[in-house]
Amino acid sequence: MSLKQALRFATLAAVGLAxxxxxxxxxxxxxxxxxxxxxxxxxDASPRDxxxxxxxxxxxxxxxxxxxxxxxxxxxxxxAGGCFCETIPEVDEPDRFTLQGSVxxxxxxxxxxxxxxxxxxALGPLQSEPVVGILTIAISESDEGTQIVWEYNVGGxxxxxxxxxxxxxxxxxxxxxxxxxxxxxxxxxPTADEAAAVPERAEPDEPATDSESDAEPDVQPEDxxxxxxxxxxxxxxxxxxxxxxxxxxxxxxxxxxxxxx
Length: 261
Known about the structure:
Alpha-D-Glucose-1,6-Bisphosphate, Chain A, domain 4; two-stranded antiparallel ribbon; 8-stranded antiparallel beta sheet; 28% strand; alpha+beta; single chain
């Protein structure tokens, strides 16, 4: 694939896959020689299930972003030094014969089961450039489910225009995380309108009669917080807070710019 073809492919990917990007996604940083793409999603699955799916990319990685055209040819060894690799199948046809080949997409530099996976490699069209790419995937429990943070940090000299290639790569990264989330069951985030909406007190179906208006009014939910029930004890028992779940920052403190020692 030529440089021009790779750039065209990456640009089309940015346009065609934009709808697949999870809601929490952004290019957090761009410069003349690099960029950082960050995506987040919450799934309805345990950290164990997330980990088992994550290390089996053949089950969710998008086939259009492989060299062989088939995600089934992907493998990932979740150990330091392990390879996120792709097999190029051999061809045995009457008029053509080739031996089996392979591609190294990334190399594992840290594998912390059910918590974090970090790999190094230049994905897709970046493979032809002298750049370093670090993909950090952190897993943590949240109130809604299991949160996955997916950050790809790329730096180095490249022949692409950074504003163009960064958007293309960001779209592809979001599509990959979106495919993983679709397999596990994404937890839908509220829309901006839903988040901003303030619930109002429901109106009665029929106007109250005179006798009803003289009666003691019911305590509405919004008033209940300011009232003390008559049966409430003078001193409520103190509830000790439980342990906090492991956070993304516990797995990788450097996601927020604070490199771990």
